[in-house]
Prior knowledge:
Low-confidence stretches: 1-19
Order of helices and strands: HEEEHHEEEE
Helix content: 25-40%
Largest sheet: 5 strands, antiparallel
Number of helices: 3
Mean pLDDT: 78
Structural class: alpha+beta
Number of strands: 7
Distance between the termini: 37 Å
Amino acid sequence: MKMIRLMAVPLVAVAMVTHAESGQGIIDEATVLKAEPIYRTVRINEPVEECWEEQVQVPANSGYESHTPKIVGALVGAAVGNEFGKGRGKDLATVAGAVLGGSIGRDVQANSRSNNSRVVYEQHCEMVDRYRTEERLVGYDVTYRYHDNVFYAFTDHDPGQVITVSVSVQPAE
């Protein structure tokens, strides 16, 4: 009779392996009846750089300014001033004519510069937000059967044909 008892112990051990016990209860498998994917629409921002050309007017002689109009104006003004007066008055008229002629030459040059502008194109860029929407899988609504009872769960992955369940057994009172 002692021999029979020793053989029964390994059979009980094998049965316990198939229903391993975790900290939450007994781990077992249940048959999946249905697993429906659940999607959520998400809005995604993808910033892009947008560039465009703008018209800009610039002076035709940008960067260079000739002194010739001022010098010519001063010489012409001095020659005209030299024609008036006598003695010391003639010298003052010559100087006044040179100053006035130089000023007139400068004004003529400034007016011609503002009228002689050209159009150039400059590129300008800025970052712009572009949004798109997409559907993302968030999980599965799973319907499964365990010992002729139907249960529902939400999982983050497709369980396949079977789902692992944790079963708690407590005495009924």
